[in-house]
Automatic annotation (TrEMBL):
Skewed-composition ranges (Acidic residues): 399-413
Annotated signal peptide: none
Residue span(s) of domain CobW C-terminal: 262-377
Family note: Belongs to the SIMIBI class G3E GTPase family. ZNG1 subfamily.
Family annotation (Gene3D superfamilies): CobW-like, C-terminal domain (3.30.1220.10), P-loop containing nucleotide triphosphate hydrolases (3.40.50.300)
Chemical reaction(s) catalysed: GTP + H2O = GDP + phosphate + H(+)
Location of region: Disordered: 390-427
Protein name: Cobalamin biosynthesis protein CobW
Protein keywords: Chaperone, Hydrolase, Nucleotide-binding
Length: 427
């Protein structure tokens, strides 16, 4: 990274968590000349007004740009890059801070920025072709920060509130988890409103959901600016890897988390799940499960993996890509060659078909949940019987075009973020 490259910090967090408060504090306290980009969903950018009113952003050193009437993780991605590009060209700033809307997902924002910033060894992507935007060479994504409301966290995780992001519905709990899972620094804000025991428990949950991030407790957004601006925290490779944390969780978690009742475990099976029994279990999934994620093989669906994504009250399933074993030749052999680790994993009869979930919860009864999941797996007898007669209420997904196929190995929940469907299994 050249010395002259301008660091960009992205602030995320659900509505009212304290993003604007953090931003104002940083503007007051930092000695750097900062430019600020504030994104708001409405036509009038209320956040920008707050920042402008309550900070000294009007100083000649600083600049405030508003991106209104849309979301920078969706339709305003091009505008975001253009605005940053403009600021970088001015070269009058030591840093840029972007405040996303409360409904923005940080991963696509970071993706836009890392594609937009010159990654050196990254291939030019379709993004450039689509938008006509040139890679930005004068800045880099420095740190991604998620602000969490310590007071509301537990309630928000269990909430079934649905947020409307310009026509796209998102569950509050789901969004919260996505924001926590993808960041370098977690600001546990509003610590003044909760007791120590609650704080410890919330922090433990955050640690399990996001082991890579630094967690800082704050009151009224009072954080040392150097920890989030020009902090040099973002690592493209690590961020990419952390999205695949299903693998990292293979090891059972240490007792620090257990102390606060936050635990996790991995459930695996090399046999398919019974569509009726598994749908019933998802209908009744225990509230103690804060997060579940992974992929599964459903009896009768031998071609493609299905992903499972549970966050708070939201349960989504999506396309997980074709099993390597179901691919036609020569793709099958090519993928096996490209992913030698599959050989070790390979099952004589079922190839790479499998069920793999990570479950994270508070006061979660491992034994009974494990037993419930095991009950969903086909028995010896069922395994040899006809699977086509089962009632299958799971949505069907179109297999991707062969040309567009992903190079990935074992299907991974995060490789298939698009196309996920909320399942109202209880109909
Ligand atoms: N008690 C307490 N209140 C806080 C703290 N941080 C922020 N607030 C208050 O919480 C409210 C929301 O804070 P904002 O900074 O506007 O939150 P935001 O994340 O920018 O909100 P949106 O822009 O709506 O997404 C304001 O009334 C703040 O004064 C804190 O640490 N403790």
């Amino acid at each position: 990274m050249p010395d002259s490259s301008i660091p960009v910090t992205v602030l995320s967090g659900t509505l009212g968590a304290g993003k604007t408060t953090v931003l104002n504090h940083v503007l007051h306290e930092s000695d750097d000349r900062l430019a600020v980009l504030v994104n708001d969903m409405g036509e009038v950018n209320v956040d920008a007004e707050h920042v402008a009113e309550s900070s000294d952003i009007a100083d000649e050193d600083e600049e405030l740009i508003e991106l209104s009437n849309g979301c920078i993780c969706c339709e305003l991605r091009g505008d975001l890059l253009e605005a940053i590009d403009g600021l970088a060209r001015e070269r009058e700033f030591d840093g840029i801070v972007v405040e996303s809307t409360g409904v923005a997902e940080p991963l696509p924002v970071a993706q836009t920025l890392t594609l937009g910033f010159d990654q050196g060894d990254l291939e030019p992507t379709e993004f450039y072709e689509e938008t006509g935007i040139e890679p930005l060479e004068d800045c880099h994504l420095d740190t991604t920060v998620t602000v969490v409301d310590a007071h509301q966290f537990r309630e928000a995780m269990r909430s079934d509130e649905i947020l409307d992001d310009d026509g796209t519905e998102k569950h509050l709990g789901d969004l919260l988890v996505e924001q926590v899972e993808f960041c370098d620094v977690l600001l546990l804000n509003k610590c003044d409103l909760v007791d120590e025991a609650t704080l410890d428990q919330v922090e433990s949950t955050l640690e399990v959901l996001q082991p890579r991030a630094e967690i800082l407790r704050t009151e009224h957004g009072r954080v040392d600016p150097d920890l989030i601006v020009s902090a040099d925290r973002f690592d493209f490779e690590e961020a990419r890897r952390s999205a695949g944390w299903i693998r990292e969780l293979q090891e059972p978690h240490e007792s620090a988390e257990e102390e606060h009742g936050v635990t996790s475990f991995v459930f695996e099976s090399r046999r398919p799940l019974h569509p009726e029994r598994f749908a019933e279990l998802l209908d009744e999934f225990p509230d103690a499960v804060v997060r579940a994620k992974g992929h599964f093989w459903l009896a009768g669906r031998g071609e493609e993996a299905i992903t499972l994504n549970v966050a708070g009250q939201s349960t989504r399933v999506g396309p997980g890509g074709p099993w390597t074993d179901a691919l036609p030749e020569p793709e099958r052999s090519e993928r096996l060659e490209a992913n030698p680790e599959l050989e070790e994993y390979w099952h004589d009869r079922w190839g790479d078909r499998s069920v793999q979930f990570v479950l994270i919860g508070t006061e979660m009864d491992h034994e009974s949940l494990r037993a419930d999941l095991a009950d969903c797996v086909l028995s010896d007898e069922e395994l040899e019987a006809d699977w086509s007669a089962y009632e299958d209420r799971f949505p069907t997904f179109e297999l991707p075009d062969e040309d567009e196929e992903d190079e990935g190995s074992t299907p991974d929940a995060d490789e298939s973020r698009s196309g996920q469907e909320e399942i109202g299994i209880a109909d």
